TrEMBL record:
Pfam families linked to this entry: ABC_tran (PF00005)
Name by which UniProt lists this protein: ABC transporter ATP-binding protein
Organism whose genome encodes this protein: Ornatilinea apprima
Domain of life (superkingdom): Bacteria
CC terms in the record's Gene Ontology section: membrane protein complex; plasma membrane
Entry GO MF terms: ATP binding; ATP hydrolysis activity; transmembrane transporter activity
Keywords: ATP-binding, Nucleotide-binding, Transport
Ranges for domain ABC transporter: 10-242
């Protein structure tokens, strides 16, 4: 298997995930290869059962490929021992989910700082400023000391975005981040997310059923039956794809 290129933050080669169902082998992901550069925001789309969430889990080092390999920053993550994989995931990968999973008894600022404490074991003045900067950048300067239950759904999701970026990961993964939001708040959240991916030069991937959100991505990868079916990287193609959905 060829080594990964240093040009790409994320690289996969012929990745597959197989499951047994009785006497049948199901290929949930079937031979997917992709390359994603720093500062690139990808929309990963497809119908239910297409394999996009399974693919995201392998990129997140939460699942190990049955075949092929995933590289993050040139590291073949499936080859890492479990303890190293956990540390790698904590340090190099940020997550935003449909359920924002904020700690209910911590303030907004404390929720974001928590990622830095987990990574570094303590909070430096630089860490505290980094957390505050992201929250201000996300328009939450007046909510730093609020508890999650005092926020709107869109505000909670913005806190989750700050938390996913605060520890300086190379990769940020979002699984249906707007599914519980109304349309206006969904647009706001994805636009902010895209801007931060570009500004901070991260590799970002968003899984979404809502193709309207793909107007903010740089490239669309559509999966069908575990395979890459369509890949679009021209602005006009992406907008036409959204309009025809």
């Amino acid at each position: 298997m060829a080594a990964a290129s240093k040009k790409f933050v994320i690289e996969t080669q012929d990745v597959a995930k197989l499951y047994k169902s009785g006497e049948t082998t199901v290929r949930a992901v079937d031979g997917v290869s992709m390359r994603i550069q720093p500062g690139e925001f990808i929309g990963l789309v497809g119908p239910s059962g297409s394999g996009k969430t399974t693919m995201l889990a392998m990129l997140a080092a939460l699942l190990t490929p049955s075949e092929g390999e995933v590289w993050i920053d040139g590291t073949a993550i499936s080859q890492l021992p479990e303890a190293e994989r956990v540390r790698f995931r904590r340090e190099r990968i940020g997550f935003t989910f449909q359920s924002n999973n904020l700690v209910p008894y911590l303030t907004v600022l404390e929720n974001v700082q928590l990622m830095l404490q987990l990574k570094n074991g303590r909070l430096s003045s630089i860490d505290k400023e980094r957390a505050r900067y992201l929250l201000v950048r996300l328009g939450l300067e007046n909510r730093l000391n609020s508890l999650p239950q005092q926020l709107s759904g869109g505000q909670r999701q913005r806190v989750a975005i700050a938390r996913s970026l605060v520890h300086g990961p190379s990769v940020v993964l979002a699984d249906e981040p707007t599914a519980s939001l109304d349309t206006e708040r969904a647009y706001q959240v994805v636009e902010i997310f895209a801007n931060l991916i570009h500004e901070e030069n991260k590799a970002g991937i968003m899984v979404t059923h809502d193709l309207r959100m793909c107007q903010y991505v740089d490239r669309v990868i559509q999966m069908v039956d575990g395979k890459v079916d369509t890949e679009l990287n021209q602005r006009e193609e992406i907008l036409e794809f959204i309009s025809c959905a």
